[in-house]
Amino acid sequence: MSKTLIIGASGQIGKLITKTLIETQEDARALVRDKSKLDDLKDSELEIFEADLEKDFSRAFDGIDNVIFVAGSGASTGPDKTLLIDLWAAKKSVDYAQKANIKKFIMVSSIGADDPDAIESDIKPYLVAKHLADQYLMASGVPYIIVRPGPLTNDAGEGKITIKRPSSREEMAIPRADVAKSVVFLLSKEDLNDKIFELFSGTYDVDNVLV
């Protein structure tokens, strides 16, 4: 059985992914800065690796086959943390993955990361960081899948998405639960490496559209 490292497992999407992997009895290692944030999962078989993404966390990759990078600096932090987490920690993760011969690296990015100049927004530094992290992964030689969800909501997920970008920004939102479900599905697919998917709420089942 392959083993998956979830980087940013205590975040909202990261925890949903981690819980799903536990429920499906997948072998997983959760990387978090503070393990107390996963106290609600402490009775499971989950392996928790405590590390600071601003330092060396290469040991977290020992014995790992797949990586999901879903770490983020958060909306309440400044450009410094965006640079250090969304870009630099992602870059280090790709370097560690390369050395560990990772079979699949799933990067949770963002809509707009393809062209940060195309969106007038106060989150442009975040989009630039995501753009550069995505580009670095694509050039690394590590087998990858990049997902770029639209604006995230906490609505209940229905497992219904589309990968066709809507015409209006209001239609681009997607529940975090549906992003998590999509990532877990992509993790299970062996024939979808080196692809980029934009994700939005839609009318298609995840396993029918992500092919």
UniProtKB/TrEMBL annotation:
Species, as recorded: Marinomonas alcarazii
Name the record gives this protein: Uncharacterized protein YbjT (DUF2867 family)
Occurrences of domain NAD(P)-binding (ranges): 8-188
Top-level taxonomic group: Bacteria
